[in-house]
Structures are given as structure tokens and as C-alpha cells.
Amino acid sequence: MNNVTSSTDFGALGVPADLVAILADRGITTPSPIQAATLPDSLRGRDVLGRGRTGSGKTYAFLLPLVARLAGGRRAAAKSPRALIVAPTRELVGQIEQALAPLAASAGLTTQTVFGGVGQGPQVNGLRRGTDIVLACPGRLEDLIQQGHCSLGSVQVTVLDEADHMADLGFLPAVKRLLDATPRGSQRMLFSATLDNAIDVLVKRYLSDPAVHEADSAQSPVSTMDHHVLHLGGRDQRLPVLIDLASAPGRTVVFTRTKHGAKALARQLNKSGVPAVDLHGNLSQGARTRNMDAFHSGKASTLVATDIAARGIHVDDVALVVHADPPTEHKAYLHRSGRTARAGAAGTVVTLMTDEQVRDVRALTRAAGIKPQTTKVDGAGHPLLADLAPGDRVLVPGGYVGEQPAGNQGGGNGGQGGGNGGGRRSGGGGRRRSGGGGQGGASAQAGQGGRGGRGAQGGRSQGQSAGSGSGGGGTGNGGGRNRRRGSGAGAAAGSGSNRNHSAASFSGRR
Ligand SMILES: Nc1ncnc2c1ncn2[C@@H]1O[C@H](COP(=O)(O)OP(=O)(O)OP(=O)(O)O)[C@@H](O)[C@H]1O
Ligand SMILES: [Mg+2]
């Protein structure tokens, strides 16, 4: 096991200059610990087992060697990709492809995603044309292989992202079959923020003399992440507390246990004036894509999701993760929570807990190596909520307009939203972007514009005030919170964009 702190640059680790330049364009100049630890081995072609915290840059840790090793080689033959990346969800596959695209383009490599829920025609065509790198969820790839559209016999590099999850019972048989179809002796890399015994079976069978790198200890959580448990007086307080937290500036990800729970909660939040989208396995792929786009663009400030969004998904500037239902096990807690405080930014994690859940929550935070601050909260007015999610509450009549039929916005929902929060803490209607009587579309736009603007400032992670200046209570809370955060990630992040994470933001934290 190696514990390497990054102190060098990508070129010195052996990353080709053109790839280094692409990273530099994105403000990425100093390797994170997991990158510094694994790249020398992975670039040489060794099998790698790598663990690094959530948000610590594992994606580039496997993409860089994969592209570097394929570059300059022979073009892929029809239906015979030269590299394979396997990940558990369609969203993650798509996200990895986005990170890969500029690197692959500079090396003249082609890519093809393969996952279910969409027509297979374009995927089959891509494979037939000859694709260098296939990024896939296991199920559809197996389908296409069985139909004769793809063979893994020419694969030189295989990556399992979220490797421990891919070794879970549901995935393991398919993952084994896929790995069995790749050539013996080809390079294999397994990455996750949590590597436990579950992956032993894959390690023993498929990795040869692997370089094992744990860039941090399993029991050392992301240091810029604040953990809180809110002990609710009753289950009826769950929604008002969520509305309060989620109507603060910035992006929020809320996790529920069930698909139905995610859908219902997103609907309730929208009805109450919090622009929200849901993400779970009951949605069509089109709806999943639309909803994630709305969350990325800021049109919806809250994502309500099942554990489908727990692994690997990166959205810039998620300030707050709320476990509306506590997860069932500690790994899920770590991965869900890891949607915030990524790449050196600060973030807050809140678990809502009822009396019946006290024992479970204690067990899972202990297993996760987290010491949360637990506070009894008797409703939405509790002052801690303004500290956890600082800034003015903004409610948008009708919530996320993309989900609302035309004409179903405005007065009625606005009235409900007002009653639920904005007025309560603002000390006046002036701060709320849209009163109950506003015309639906216009109101919604104004509200979303406000949120977007504040998000873009990166106020929460860079020590700027999130408050808009009106409403003394909100501004005071915002300033206080941000001062606290500013001393950590704000100082590290330095420049204007949250994407430009400096080296200090990674290495300075440990
Ligand atoms: N060396 C670096 N310096 C600064 N930012 C980086 C660096 N490497 C990656 N990043 C950025 O950090 C963010 C998180 O990276 P990534 O998604 O790869 O994390 P991860 O370790 O895979 O997390 P998870 O365990 O949640 O999947 C991305 O926005 C990425 O562009
Ligand atoms: Mg990842």
C-alpha cells in the first residue's frame, strides 16, 4: 500500500504532453493523491486496485493511462473495442464519456456508450464501425455480445469503476462473464472510494500482481464535509425541514430509500415551491436525462434520488446532501454523502432521523467512521437549519416548470409555498422572488435566475456571502456560514471557478 501526497505534476508522472495540456485547459494541473499514487503504475500497464475518497479524481486516474496506452495503436476492428470501461449506471457511463471525450479526441480515439433504456441501433452501428473505447453498463453490453455485435477479444485495458459495487451480487455474474471475455494478461484497473472484501473475488481471479493504492484510509472521511444528524420530533416534520433546507441557495441532493419515495418527495417539494427533479429506476431514460440536465443547468436546484445517484455522479457545487431516509449501510452513506465536498470544495451532509431510526443511524455512522453532530430539531424554524444551509430561502411558485403543465403555476402553488417557508424567515415578502399572484412562467424564471446567479458565484465554497442583502436574518446566517467555510475550501480553491481546483484543495486537506 502506498500513501502518496501529490507534489509533482502530471508530466513528471509520465502523462503524455497533449493530455497534460487538456487537463491544464480545465484548470487541472496538480495530480490528486490517488492520481499521483496510481499513474506511474497504470501508465506502465500494471493492473491497479485503487481507492481514493469520493470526489478525489479517480476518473482521470483511469482515463489518462487508458488513453495514453491506446494512443498511436492500430485502429479498432469492427465490433472489437480495444478498451472497456464498466460502470453501474447510465448516468455515470455518460459522465465518464464526457470526461473522456477531449482526451480521446486528441489521441484520435473513438468512443461508444452502451447501456439499456435506449434503442440499441446507434450502439450497434458504432460498434460495427469500429470503436476504440466502449463505456458500458453490464446488462446491455452482454446483450450485444450475445447478439454478435461485440467481442471483447481485442480489449487491452479494462476498467471497473465503482468496483466494489460491480462486485455486488446483482452485478457480479455479468461482470465476471465480461472479464472472462477479455484477454488474459490484458491490463485491468479497479477503482472505488470503498474497497472491501466483496471485491476479493475479482482481485484474485482477474488481477495479476496488482499495484494496490489506497490514497487515504477507509476511516478518514473527506475533511471538508460537515456531518449532521437532525433528530426530528416526528415524521411530519420531515417535509417542512426539507423545504427549509432545499430552498436555500445552491444545489441540494436529497436521497430517499425507494423510487416511489423519490418521486413523491420531488412532487411535494415542487408543490411547495422548491424546484426539484427526481432520479430513480422507474423513470424512462429520456426523463432521467432531462431531469439530470435540469439539475446540471440549475433550472432545478434540488435532485431527489434513490441510491442510483449515490455512486460516482458529479455535479459542480452541490452544497448540501440530505439523507431524507437514512441509508441502510455505511458504504451507501459514504457514497451518497460524497456528492458534496468534491475536489476540495466544502459541503454539508444532513441525515434526518426519527425516534425509530436512532439505533440504525448510530450504527451506520460509526461504521462509516463519521462523528456527526446530532441535534434535536422540532420543525422548520430551528436556527440550525439556517446554519446548515445558509442564505435567503427562495420559493418558486409551482417549483420546477419543466414538470408542470402550462397554466398550472402561479397563485395556488405560490400561496402554499409562501406558507411553507420564505415568509417565515425572511421577515418580509421582499426577499421572495415571486409572490403568490405572479404570472407563473415569469415568476419561475425570476426565481431560478436568482438561484443560478448565486450558485455561479460559488458563494458557499468560496467564502462570499450567499445572502442577497435584503432580510437581515438571512444575510447574517449566510455570512456566518460562509466565513466558516471560506477558511477551508475557499482559501484552497482560490480562483473564481469551482472547477479550477488547485493542488492545495486536494493536498492541503490531509
Ligand atoms: N487533479 C485534479 N485537480 C483538480 N480537480 C480535479 C483533479 N482531478 C479531477 N478533478 C475534478 O474533481 C472532480 C471529481 O472527480 P471524480 O468524479 O473523478 O471523483 P471520484 O474520485 O471518481 O469520485 P467518486 O468516488 O464520487 O466517484 C471532477 O470535477 C474532476 O474534474
Ligand atoms: Mg468516480
Automatic annotation (TrEMBL):
InterPro entries, sorted: DEAD/DEAH_box_helicase_dom (IPR011545), DEAD/DEAH_RhlB (IPR044742), DEAD_box_RNA_helicase (IPR050079), Helicase_ATP-bd (IPR014001), Helicase_C-like (IPR001650), P-loop_NTPase (IPR027417), RNA_helicase_DEAD_Q_motif (IPR014014)
Superkingdom field: Bacteria
Chain residue ranges for the region called Disordered: 396-510
DEAD-box RNA helicase Q domain span: 8-36
Sequence ranges assigned to domain Helicase ATP-binding in this UniProt record: 39-213
Residue ranges of the motif Q motif: 8-36
Keywords: ATP-binding, Helicase, Hydrolase, Nucleotide-binding
Polar residues compositional bias, start-end: 501-510
Segments of skewed composition (Gly residues): 408-480
Positions of the Helicase C-terminal domain: 224-389
One Gene Ontology MF term: helicase activity
Similarity remark: Belongs to the DEAD box helicase family.
UniProt-recorded name of the protein: DEAD/DEAH box helicase
Source organism: Nocardioides nanhaiensis
